[in-house]
Amino acid sequence: MSALRPRLPALLLPALLALLFSSTHAAPATPPNTKEAAEPELAPPVENSSLDGELFYQLLLGELSVQQGESGMAYSLLLNAARKTDDGRLYLRAIEIALRARAGDSALQAARDWSKAQPDSAEANRYLLQILLGLNRLDDTVGPLQRALALAAPQERPTLVATLPLYFSRSNDKARAASVLEQALQPQLNPTAAQATPIDRATGAAAWSAVGRMRLAADNPVGVLEAARRGAALDPRAPEPLLLAMALLSPQLPARYAPQRDEAKELLARHFASSAPASAGLRLNYARTLVDAQRYAEAQAQLKIVTQEQPDLADAWLLQGMLELQDKRPNNAEKSLKRFLTLMEAQRKQAAAARNQDGADDEDGADETSEGPLLQRSAGQQAIQRAMTQAYLALSQIAEQRKDYKGAQDWLARIDTAGNAEELLRVQRQRAGLLARQNRLDEALAMLRSLPEDTPEEARGKLQAQVQLLRDHKRHAQAYALLDEAVRNAPQDYDLLYDLAMMAEKLGRAEEMERVLRRIMAEKPDYHHAYNALGYFLADRNMRLPEARALIQKALDAAPEDPFITDSLGWVAFREGNREEAMRLLKRAYAGRPDAEIAAHLGEVLWSLGQRDEARKIWREGLELNADNETLLETLQRLGVKKP
């Protein structure tokens, strides 16, 4: 190799540069002061690297081979150099070369050599683990997983364990991945009770949760619940098992999760009702989970506790305000939303001050071109902007309900929609609603038609905004025409098909409505709204009641917490003559979601049972929720009851 004299390229890759420029370290000499005698400063000792001439040319030839596309030779040269020097940077360079060449086995060999040469290197072990997972060699990951935990500081282990399911997220065999992870975590899952420290218990709770997450990915509901229970038993204060139990409450899970969902509810209810303190953040997550499950009253109860215990938690005020607005309590909602905005403004000022301070601290040479922190900051600012937009829209809606149209416009004017088509649509949709409320419907529709539709999502949102406006103002024929055209262009868009069926019903085209809904059921059997819509239609007209019940029950199996489907089931029970069962179901639906239409049904059942005062009370509440609800007004007129 001594005869080889290749020309040094202008740019070398980072690994080689790092080696060359960190090989020796010597402080520059300080010229002596001739005017004053002073103690000479001792320079730090010179540290010579192991880079000799032969190794230098071996590295150089390896990098030249990379540039010439000879990855096999480059890999061999760099791996050989890594073995000689025991330098982690060279092992990493060999791995990079192998991965770029899609030579997985070679990358694995380099990672194994590195991990063997440096058994205490967390970085070497991490690369070995990631490559094994990339090659789908799940059984071989047990050792690296256990070594990763052994190398981590005890207080860092719960966090590390919680991230492990991410490593297996791309595995095709989720059940096998769950089994391997459970095998690797056996010491953490079953700590010796007599010797277990608080950190051991926290790590064990996180381990059970990690296993539970993998079981959830593997569609193992029984295993998920077991993991949540055992984790919570190991450390009742650990958040991870509770978050796992919350995942079981997701309405997106299939109907077969119903037994585990019920038991998860009990586990969570016991925890949050116990004397053990729960963090405000965890309780807020629980409230969000309850909202997703449409258990609004329970969510509000949790939010009340959060806002009392930690009144500066802005997100809790936003969620509480949105729920209060949904429940037709505009005064409460306004207070909560304004409290949210006040807290957010204070946070923004603090963040700006911190950035200014960081800028001052970094004046002497800090690198402001780093993309990572800037991207993180941008993502955080976007999340804040989305939340504040939600609050402004809600406050505009409250002002609109009070017929304070100028105030509603003022709230909308605070929203910055520049470069954000989604927010532009939301704002213009609200402005269109304001115009329509002032008998300027055609102007409102023209505003919506003028919106851009550069993407399919924008076009769809624009269409839905027009349809909603027409539906709200009973221009059903125009709404039907828009939907009919849209369905012709997108025949597999089942949300549009469902809306078309509902509009056909408004126009008295019952046969067409049923035909469209049955088409949805045939093509997308899990679209539970179609079953509920047809079942309710039949029950409301007191026809084909056994079929109506079967349809509604199928919808409820798919969405057991949906109060509107529960309302449908209660209504079919009433039509069947089972008034006690109807009252039980309708009370449950109304407790889950106070709504004018549910109030109409519940009030009629109470009226039929002779509970006239209670019926009037429910109807009065329904009118306060929505004084224009067609079902409620028709019920009062049919029964000859004056507005309570």
From TrEMBL:
InterPro entries the record matches: TPR-like_helical_dom_sf, TPR_rpt
PROSITE patterns: TPR
Bias (Acidic residues): 359-370
Keyword Signal listed: yes
Positions of region (Disordered): 351-373
TPR repeats: 596-629
Stretch forming the signal peptide: 1-26
Keywords, sorted A to Z: Signal, TPR repeat
UniProt-listed PANTHER family: BLL7664 PROTEIN, CELL DIVISION CYCLE 16,23,27
The name this protein goes by in its record: Tetratricopeptide repeat protein
Organism of origin: Hylemonella gracilis str. Niagara R
